[in-house]
Structures are given as C-alpha cells and as structure tokens.
Write a structure and sequence with these properties.
Belongs to the class-I DAHP synthase family. Keywords: Amino-acid biosynthesis, Aromatic amino acid biosynthesis, Transferase. There is one protein chain. An eight-stranded parallel barrel has the order 3-4-5-6-7-10-11-12, surrounded by seven helices. The chain has a two-stranded antiparallel sheet with strand order 1-2. The chain has a two-stranded antiparallel ribbon with strand order 8-9. The chain starts with a strand and ends with a helix. The protein is built from ten helices and twelve strands. β4, α4 (132-148) and β5 (153-156) form a beta-alpha-beta unit. It has a single domain, classed as Aldolase class I (TIM Barrel). The chain is an alpha/beta fold. α3 runs parallel beside α4 (132-148). The chain has helices at residues 32-38, 43-60, 79-95, 132-148, 163-166, 183-191, 207-217, 257-269, 289-304, 349-366; strands at residues 2-3, 9-10, 67-72, 100-105, 153-156, 172-175, 196-199, 221-225, 231-235, 242-246, 276-279, 310-316. It binds erythose-4-phosphate and phosphoenolpyruvate. Residues 74, 107, 111, 156, 176-178, 199, 247, 282 line the site of phosphoenolpyruvate (PEP).
C-alpha cells in the first residue's frame, strides 16, 4: 500500500503501513535482568534498603515518632555534584538520626509541563541524544553510590517500565502531581515494594490522591514487562503503604494547619493513612526556593507544639541555591554552574543545614 501526499491510501504492497506511522526509531534496551546482574545491590545494601523501608512504614504509621525528611535536588543531572551532596547529607542524617529519618531525593525522571529535559534516565548526556541505556546505568550507579554512604533514597516513578531497572535500590517512592490520576501509575504503585506517596493534583485537588491510595492498595492486573523484558501480565498484591503528599496547587498552598487537618480527615474517612507528607517546595513555596525555609519554619513550629498529622516533609535542595536555565540541544552542559539545579529552584546547602537542625529540634520538643 502507498499513501499519496494528500493522505489517501492505495491498495498494494505492505500490510504494515498503518503501524508506527509517527515512530522514527525503535532501539532495544538491555533487559532489567541484564542490568541488575551487571550492577547488583549486594546483601548489605539490600538489608539497609529493607530496614529503611520498614522505618519509613513505622513513621507513616505513627509507631516511630521521628519525622521523615525527603530532601535533595529537584533532579540529578551531574552525578559528581550529586555524590558530593549525598556525602554531606549522609553526615547530617547521622547527626539527626534520633529525630529525623533523612532520605535523599534522587530524582531521575522529570514530568514536564510542556517540554524540557526529562531527566538523567531519559537524556544522561544532556544533549538531546536520549541514550536511555546509559541513563538507566547512570541512575542505578548513583543509587548504589548513595546507598554505600548508608543514605536511603527516594525517587519519583514516572514511567511504568523504568522501575524494573532501579526500584530495588529505592526506599521511598513518589507519584507526581501530573500522574496521580493516572490508572497506569496507580497500578504500578500496587506492585512497588516500598512506601509510595501520591501528590495532590496540580490544581490543588486532594481527592485524586485519596482515590490513588485506594486504587493502589488493591490488587491489580495489568500489562508490564518481566525481568527478561518480555511483555507480561503483571498481577500485584496491592501497596498498603500508599500515602498523601500535600504540594499545594494552582489554588494556593495547602500546608496550613487547617488544610493539613482537612486532608488528613478525608484520608481517614476513606480508610487511608491520615498521616501525610508535606512538600515545602512546588506550589507550597510558589516555586520560590527561599520560601521553602519559611514553610519549613512554620511546619517546625507546629511539630514542636505537638502536631501528629505530619509524618514527613519534602524539600528541594542542592549545593547551590536557585536554578539555571538549561535546554538540551541549545545550551552546553559544560557551561553549567556546578551543584545548581537545572529544573526547579532549590535551597542552597546552608539553609538546608539550618532547616534540618530546626526540624530535629522541633521533633525533640514536640514528639
Ligand atoms: O519538580 C518538578 C517540576 O516542577 C515539574 O517537573 C514541572 O516542571 P516544568 O513546569 O518546568 O516543566
Ligand atoms: C515533579 C515534582 O513535583 P510535583 O509532581 O509536585 O510537581 C517533584 O517533586 O519533582
């Protein structure tokens, strides 16, 4: 069959010309099994990851009275700077371990409002070459390196296939505001091995995240891939550790005592975990990195005063404050400022240290 310029089909030749009309390339990737065999976790790290997941569960359930703090860069684009950040954070995690369980944001997949760099897995060379095989290995190596420091890791799961390559090294997961309503992501969470938080929607709607917690707590059956990369029916048991992350929305922030109380009550009424994680960044800070310290200060006061609804807190932080504009294919990665975000603005290192001290003191007083 041939298609004329005006788009009318004539009957001759290939029977496949209606397929993949807009696909320019298929490049097979190594299978999850191959990458895991090449870069195994090892017994010690597996033990640490399982222990961190249990501790996070205990915090979410209110059994462990510490505060979960998920903190780190908006995205990992420079693994060397990311490792330096991880080494500094590991010291603070140890220092505050009595009051805080610090988990590093190791985000390799970025959901974009329209277009932009989609993260280390998608484009590790930051030049639009999309070397996903190298990206999967880079992300896995980074998780192994951070794990070696004894620091648990957190990530957003954006694609349904990528978790097969990295999820064994992750202690806490998130589903972002743009995908919480997606059935694909809810099904994925139902089979993930770690506690996972669902963010409220970008419009501020909390109900989508409550629905997501219920859907992911249930067993699900869906299409996925197995360790050999074969399309498979995936049947899951359901994830009982799904919870809510309040990140604010286009209708404003939602970290006030009243907003957290209302969301927590709705979760309880739905039979879901009423203890929530509050994101000090995104719409709760109006994407202003300096405002994150203000939000954390207010939350710390409430924790010191005995709040029981806040199980955890999220902040975006890197070595340098703010963010720099970067468009793959247009900007040169060699010109980037080391340790500064190329996605959302982050708190710098100094304010991060101060914020963690403030939170540790608040927990010491209030819990
Ligand atoms: O932290 C994440 C960003 O806010 C999200 O990926 C959207 O980014 P964008 O609006 O710059 O595309
Ligand atoms: C993308 C993120 O957040 P949100 O989904 O809240 O925009 C993020 O935490 O990196």
């Amino acid at each position: 069959m041939t298609v004329t310029e005006r788009g009318t089909a004539t009957a001759e030749g290939s029977s496949h010309s209606t397929n993949n009309v807009r696909v320019s390339q298929f490049s097979p990737l190594p299978t999850p099994g191959e990458i895991l065999a090449e870069m195994p976790a090892g017994d010690v790290l597996e033990y640490r990851i399982e222990r961190a997941r249990q501790e996070i569960r205990a915090i979410l359930d209110g059994v462990d009275r510490r505060l979960l703090v998920v903190v780190g860069p908006c995205s990992i684009h420079d693994v060397d700077a990311g490792r330096e950040y991880a080494a500094r954070l590991a010291e603070l995690a140890e220092k505050h371990r009595e009051h805080l369980l610090i988990v590093m944001r190791t985000y390799f997949e970025k959901p974009r409002t329209t277009v932009g760099w989609k993260g280390l897995i998608n484009d590790p060379e930051l030049d639009g070459s999309h070397n996903i095989a190298a990206g999967l290995r880079a992300a896995r190596q980074f998780l192994l390196d951070v794990g070696e420091l004894g620091l648990p890791t957190a990530t957003e799961f954006l694609e349904p296939i990528s978790p097969q390559y990295v999820a064994d090294l992750v202690s806490w997961g998130a589903i972002g505001a743009r995908t919480t309503e997606s059935q694909i992501h809810r099904q994925l969470v139902s089979g993930l091995s770690m506690p996972v938080g669902f963010k409220n929607g970008t419009d501020g709607g909390v109900q989508v995240a409550i629905d997501a917690c219920q859907a992911s707590a249930a067993p699900q059956a869906f299409l996925g891939i197995d360790d050999d990369g074969r399309a498979s029916l995936v049947a899951t048991r359901g994830n009982q550790d799904a919870h809510l992350i309040l990140r604010g929305g286009s209708d404003g922030p939602n970290y006030s005592e009243q907003a957290v109380g209302a969301a927590s009550a709705k979760m309880a009424a739905a039979g879901a975990n009423p203890r929530v994680v509050v994101d000090a960044s995104h719409a709760n800070s109006g994407k202003d990195h300096e405002r994150q310290s203000v939000v954390i200060g207010e939350l710390a006061e409430r924790i010191a005063a005995g709040d029981t609804e806040i199980a955890g807190l999220m902040a975006e932080s890197f070595l340098e404050p703010g963010a720099q504009k970067f468009t793959p294919g247009q900007d040169d990665a060699a010109d980037l400022v080391r340790g500064q975000s190329i996605t959302d603005k982050c708190m710098g290192w100094g304010p991060t240290e101060d914020a963690l001290q403030l939170l540790a003191d608040a927990v010491a007083r209030g819990r």
